[in-house]
Model the fold of this input.
Amino acid sequence: MTSQVGNYVNRAYLAAYDWLVYKSEKPRHYLWQAFYEIMSMVNKDDDWITMNYGYALLTSDGKLLSSLQEE
Done:
């Protein structure tokens, strides 16, 4: 009985996590925005100037990556 409850709780947690992190629109936006704000407050390293929110893959010189394969 206990393992059934644990399995149900685990499945519910994973479903909620999947929805919040990957499938929702506004909640996901606010979650990641808060994450990046916290990371910028915690990491005071001078070399860490900007963070890519993941909207575009950039090369080391800041240009848009045309494909995932190296040319």
About this structure: The two ends are 56 Å apart (CA to CA). Residues 2-23 form the longest helix (22 residues). Residues 1-71 form one domain.
